[in-house]
# Entry
Amino acid sequence: MDFKTLKLTRKPNQFLVAPDGYCENAEPHMEAKVYEVTVETLHAAFIAVAKRQPRTEVLEERSDGGKFVQKSKLIGFPDFIDVQFLSMAAKQSTLLIYSRSKYGRSDLGVNEKRIRAWLAELDTELAGTAD
# Structure
């Protein structure tokens, strides 16, 4: 996935987190936080958080990011989550996340809730990191 050229659909069943001005064709729903850790530490912490989520499978893991699928509890509809990690300085990094539903138009805010919960858990995960 190329976050630089990503174009959001007109459907409300998606949620994008990105640094201000990074995406050329999309306005993020939430500005990405700058973390005071190396990109490697951010990467490892996020992957650990994602792997602990229920009904979530790693589809692809790369040195700069990954792709996940999380299925809904009742029916098992897949939502796809792409993440990319960016180094900003020696001990500063950030990330981009795009979560979206494969089916339907409305997700009743599920993608946003998911990503906000994952980011809160990421903050907790990183709080114990002495980078």
